[in-house]
Specification:
This protein is an alpha/beta fold. It has 9 helices and 7 strands; from the N terminus they run βαβαβαβαβαβααβαα. It starts with a strand and ends with a helix. The protein binds NADP nicotinamide-adenine-dinucleotide phosphate.
Length: 255
């Protein structure tokens, strides 16, 4: 059985990836993972293939164990894995609660790594692996410190994983978009200091980001920046000392 697995499929980028992988790969099933079951059921009904709903909270270690057991039972070919489940919180490190801080690290870092780990044995030559990081991971971002740090982690993890998987024929890409029009902003502003980041201009549509990054992944590129602004940020982070983009960002976020 050929399947695709998409985490964060109930909304935004994950939902867009699920629909596009359905058309692109014609898998037998797409396993849809997020907490909101009714959203996943509705998406499953829109797919051409069978959508298998796995409603689970990926912050909990037991959820990944359920996925691991299901994979061991079905032994599918995982033709695509997209780890899109994630969230951010606006605010300085001192503005965030222990729960917000811990949950962000648990979901954005640990769950992505754990879901990937249990899927690795089922990836075959030509399989696609996309880890949804962010251009926030290119440099430290005061006012969005924790989120940027989690995405820097995921970016580095993905780059080294790509190297480790060389020879297996798996296409591994870290997706690093700029702002995307999803439910991300509403979640990020639900914090003690929502004005730490006042505006999110030039946001892209999730469908465009998913399509662009799948094309970049098809070309086996390591990083998909999905637009001129994140591309400039990627280049800037390589040639400038970190204090330069940090100072620039610190002005922009208050405007
Ligand atoms: N939007 C942006 O500006 C932007 C830019 C760069 C990168 N990104 C990254 O893109 C990814 C997708 O975000 P998005 O923009 O599509 O935001 P979104 O619309 O809020 O989607 C986030 C997804 O993550 C799922 N999720 C959240 N907590 C979860 C948990 N504990 N367990 C399982 N699933 C969980 C949500 O589903 P449930 O709530 O149903 O669980 C939802 O499906 C994230 O990793 C984000 O960091 C976003």
């Amino acid at each position: 059985m050929k399947i695709a697995i998409v985490t964060g499929a109930s909304s935004g980028l994950g939902r867009a990836y699920a629909k596009q992988l359905d058309r692109l790969l014609h898998p037998d099933e797409i396993w849809l993972i997020a907490r909101r079951e009714e959203r996943l059921q509705a998406l499953a009904g829109e797919l051409g293939c069978r959508g298998r709903v796995l409603a689970m909270d990926l912050k909990r270690r037991e959820s990944v164990e359920v996925l691991e057991a299901l994979l061991a039972e079905e032994r599918p070919e995982v033709a695509a894995l997209v780890c899109a489940a994630g969230f951010g919180k606006f605010g300085r490190a001192q503005d965030l609660t222990a729960e917000e801080t811990g949950d962000m690290i648990a979901l954005n870092c640990r769950s992505a790594v754990e879901v990937t780990r249990v899927c690795l044995p089922y990836l075959e030559r030509g399989s696609r692996l996309l880890e949804v990081a962010s251009c926030a991971g290119f440099q430290p971002l005061p006012g969005m410190n924790l989120y940027a740090a989690t995405k820097a982690f995921l970016l580095r993890y993905t780059q080294a994983l790509r190297w480790e998987l060389r020879g297996r024929g798996v296409k591994v890409t870290a997706v690093c978009p700029y702002w995307v029009k999803t439910e991300f902003m509403a979640v990020a502003r639900d914090t003690a200091n929502p004005d730490a980041v006042r505006h999110t201009p030039f946001a892209m549509r999730p469908e465009a980001v998913a399509a662009w990054s799948l094309t970049m992944n098809g070309l086996d590129l390591a990083v998909a920046t999905c637009g001129p602004i994140p591309f400039a940020m990627e280049v800037g982070s390589k040639v400038l000392p970190a204090c330069v983009p940090m100072a620039l960002w610190d002005k922009l976020r208050r405007m």
